User: Fold this.
Amino acid sequence: MYWNKDIECMDRERLTNLQVEKLRATAIRVYNNVPFYKKAFDEKGIRPEEIRSLDDLKRLPFTMKSDLRDNYPFGLFAVPKEQIVRVHASSGTTGKPTVVGYTKRDIENWANLMARTLVFAGGNKNSVVQVAYGYGLFTGGLGAHYGAEALGAMTIPVSGGNTQRQIMLMQDFGTTIIACTPSYALFMAETMEEMGIDRSTLKLEAGIFGAEPWTEAMRSEIERRLGILAIDIYGLSEIMGPGVASDCEHKQGLHIAEDFFLPEIIDPDTLEPLPYGEKGELVITTIDKEGIPLIRYRTRDITALHPEKCACGRTMVRMEKVLGRTDDMLIIRGVNVFPSQIESVLINIAEASPNYQIVVDRVDNYDTLDVQVEVSPEFFSDEVKVLEALEEKIRNAIANVLCINVKVTLVEPKSIERSMGKAKRVIDKRKF
Amino acid sequence: MVKQISVFVENKKGRLAKITDVLARAGIDLIALSIADTANFGIMRCIVSDTDKAMALLRENGLTASVTNVIATEVADRPGGLAGVLKILDEAGIGIEYLYSSVRTPNRNAVVIFRVEDISAAEQALEGNSIKLLDEKEIRGI
Assistant:
């Protein structure tokens, strides 16, 4: 089944022509409307009208997450603010979030792309889609929601958390497709087992799981324990949100919606494009976005592309499961976390030493983040309540910036390992 | 009034053993000792035979420690002994942050260490009620 067969199975030549046309139009639009891009194009000596083939893509400037921060909040928007109907945001590398804006047409396109993804998972208008991604500035909840509605499915906007209630609704409403992070799916499976829920009382057929890295082993476990098809979906708010790429039922890599997004793989050191099949950093150019089109956005995700036509009949290029990053970003329960954000919080708390270490683990399929902070001798107190108040203060300040709860542990000074040169700030014990 | 040392104890196996070992090697004697613990860390509070030397050693060993003034009282070792002292402080409106007792017991009496916010008020109240307070020299002599 397809959502839009003509597009999804388009032959390469027609697709390429469509992409060149859209790329050229996007380049002209950002050149004329976004001062950042005018400057970047001019510096490279490129005029957008000169774009004649996809080969010209490599001549265009890159866009980095820091460029969004430097132009915070709306500096990279390519339309006047009155045309923006929604904003979303994700964590920036420091205190300020990365903000993206959508026009009415962008929202419609996004909904269509998410509907396409839901069809990959076997969805149709008879489906009952339970959206257990968080609703809010995070793109997961609303992205999946609008897609499910565009598909014509019955949409349950339950958001994250409250697992027993999720399971009750799943039973009572006859949920067929669940959308959440893969670790939450496993947590739900465990809770069901604990509650003694008989699988046959559920109508669940498939899940679209994303927002965090997960392994094939985890996929098998979810499929076995929930008795469903587990689909990996990929997206990032800078590009659009969920729906940029998704597995089909053959699970041979995630089909990128190439009619909207031009993917490239580059060597993160030389920045040179790499051929199909080679691992490197994924770079995406949005070629049909109005609110905030991005040229050669460096995702920092490591993957490889495979162009061969898939057994499902789709021609759209497939990307391998993302299993690494070229920067130090962590994904904790689906939320992007940069160690630098935690550092900036600690620097602003006089009693806390800026010597810290982050220990990440996954306990019972739940990501934990422990921030270990050295006690500074000047602020050491012999009273428990004073030190506990300090822990609480740090915990609240971090929760304010990251929007997730973390554990804070005070440790002895100098107990955090000092390596030669750069301090080792992150210990990630999770296995992907 | 006597000086007490407080040491931050990370919640990690062997930390207390290390701290006490540092003191033992230098021949420093523990006269009174208590540990406050939370889920994440502990604070070891102690009165030692040589406060300055102990502090220098702890710092040399990278430990976080501080000196706090506390009150040491001699309390009759019988039912109601401590209750009587606490009643005096309560009536004087003095709040207690924490208290613990010494490992040594002179004259068949117990020695109880108090940490209060207003030391001089507490001392006044206790002395006014004939409670024996120990000074630096006395506590090290018991």
Summary: Chain A has two domains: 5-326, 332-428.
